[in-house]
Design a protein that fits this description.
- With 181 residues, the protein is of the alpha/beta class.
- The chain has a single domain, classed as 3-Layer(aba) Sandwich (Rossmann fold).
- It contains seven helices and five strands; from the N terminus they run E-H-E-H-H-E-H-H-E-H-E-H.
- A five-stranded parallel sheet has the order 2-3-1-4-5, with helices on both faces.
- The longest helix is centred in the C-terminal third of the chain and has 18 residues, at 163-180.
- The two termini are 13 Å apart.
């Protein structure tokens, strides 16, 4: 187990994961914590290549997301991961019908100290190549929750807008850190 406390943010598209990751990083840094916010490898891939990944590129992206989280955990007190390999596995399942990434992604997810799943309560917003549409959010959310249940990973659902969402996530982190201690 890493000495860092690793928080992962999972959820369907346009549910505020990236915004929440940045807000959590700032709030925890303001508490005097050494924080690393790990960005989304998939988002960077889409921005860099101007397209979504092919099926044969999914496993490499999942491995890269895990590598980044592990690297950050070696250098920070607390890591906020804006998604994990599990989200790539879910999208590989939805887009390509490929369930082959789940086993490794679920094992990686079990290494996180806290998993937060963002609720579907925010309005859907288009965001470049990564957005399939609001009709995909329900099936993605269902698969995320099923994968977490299958792998025995407990999670908290984070809902609300603005400060309410941030306060709920911070409270979940505080509870989980207290339980770990």
């Amino acid at each position: 187990m890493s000495p860092a406390f690793v928080v992962s943010l999972l959820g369907a598209e346009s549910t505020g994961k990236t915004t929440l990751a940045g807000e959590l990083g700032l709030a925890l840094a303001n508490r005097g914590r050494g924080v690393a916010v790990v960005g989304e490898a998939l988002r960077e891939f889409c921005d860099r290549h101007g397209r979504t990944p092919r099926q044969d590129e999914q496993s490499g992206l999942a491995a890269e997301q895990t590598r980044r989280i592990d690297e950050a955990a070696g250098a920070a007190q607390i890591v906020i991961a804006d998604t994990t390999a599990l989200m790539i596995a879910v999208y590989s399942d939805i887009v390509f019908g490929d369930t082959g990434l789940y086993a490794a992604a679920e094992a990686d997810q079990r290494r996180c100290d806290l998993t937060l799943v963002t609720a579907l309560d925010l309005p859907w917003l288009a965001d470049g190549l990564q957005r399939d549409g609001p009709h995909v959010r329900g099936p993605v959310d269902d698969r995320v929750r099923a994968a977490l249940a299958r792998s025995g990973v407990a999670f908290e659902t984070i809902a609300g807008r603005g400060p309410t969402r941030l306060e709920a996530a911070l409270a979940a982190i505080d509870r989980a850190e207290a339980a770990r201690a």
